[in-house]
Amino acid sequence: MNPMAQAPSLTDFGHDPWWLILGKIVFAFVVALLGTLLGVWFERRVVGFMQVRPGPNQLGPFGLLQTLADGLKMAFKEDILPKSADKVIYFFAPAISVICAVTALSVIPFGPMVSVFGHQTPLQVTDVPVAVLVVLALSSMAVYGIVLAGWASGSTYPLLGGLRSSAQLISYEVALGLSIVAVFMLAGTMSTSEIVAAQGQGITFNLFGADIQGPGWYAVLLFPSFVVFFISIVGETNRPPFDLPEAESELVAGFMTEYSSLKFALIMLSEYVAMVTMSAFTVTLFLGGWYAPWPISLWSGANSGWWPLLWFFGKVILLVFVFVWLRGTLPRLRYDQLMRLGWKVLIPVSLVWIVVLATWLKAQDWERNDRLVVLGIVGGIGLIAALFWPSRKPQPKPTLVEQVENRPQGSFPLPPLDLQVPPSPRTRRMVAEREPANAPAGQDSQEV
């Protein structure tokens, strides 16, 4: 069976009856809600396994009802409103992040064309020619919920957490946008359903005069873009090791410090829905979407009917596991390390990779001699840039004695270098009074 036979296109949308559209919307909402409930349980179980402890195992089989119990507990907790809070914004800020994260699932393709009560319809709420930009816009708007929650709380720590989140979003949004430029160049479209269809076709490229059929997943073809994209979405979702906006060791709980009860539950909901949404977005752009992985793809019926739902959610669960794995493994970065990674590593790597990919794609249309000339020029420019790139030699760190001698006059007094704190005047006076009158001259009174 041709794997492209069941792939939807933009012309397949907009013809569904109202009840089918409503059913798709409810399905996307249920996916987001179950993703949160099971995501919290999954994270606790996986981190418990990594730390050699059981994790939740009392409520329900394998502790599956623990998250539901936590949600009921939050619903009955006292809802505390700070006196200095902006009541309207304080109330609506958590809902902004949840709405943006859930809405982004509307353009994610869950599967191919299927038959629902006799109607042929794609397993996707909707699709537009710029669906990828819709997801990026919604992920950018979600930070407004965090920033406004921090500002409206009327407290210092939430405000600092909100400011950190806005700076972090700007830093990693640029790298995120640049990383998917390569996907647009290769797929030739910004529609999510058509990007998945392009990965199902595979790609044919010319290598030394021979046409070679390559794998379709862009995670293989565009591996640098995939790495930059995944690091960027971890920063976008404020997940460890990039959870600086809610650093409990510095800011108590960051932007959510003053929230309680159901509002706090909404903030947790938005975080886990965003994690599931961005995992599904990664699967769509780089991991073949709902297409079956090899060797399951050798089965002729693997990419038809309802089976692709299983492959899609299997890939999403795998990426959620990577999110949890990072949390249980890596320590939190310092803020300067966070900014340096975004501006000095991810963005330059994305720019260089786009230039290299554009050169290679253009070279496919040229003669071999022209390709060698162009690649030679690009390689020469890269070699010259590597040789003459300005670099500073690290200055030797001054010793402790040099630091003390070079400290400015009138600065705060430093403790003695031998770390022996001299006795206070009162102690010296008491020792002098107890000292016998015939004590030998020069005896150190501190030894008494």
From TrEMBL:
Topology class, membrane: Multi-pass membrane protein
Reactions accelerated catalytically: a quinone + NADH + 5 H(+)(in) = a quinol + NAD(+) + 4 H(+)(out)
The organism's place on the tree of life at top rank: Bacteria
Location of the region described as Disordered in the Swiss-Prot/TrEMBL record: 402-448
Self-association and partners: NDH-1 is composed of 14 different subunits. Subunits NuoA, H, J, K, L, M, N constitute the membrane sector of the complex.
HAMAP family: NDH1_NuoH
Family: Belongs to the complex I subunit 1 family.
Full protein name: NADH-quinone oxidoreductase subunit H
Species the sequence originates in: Micromonospora zingiberis
Record gene name: nuoH
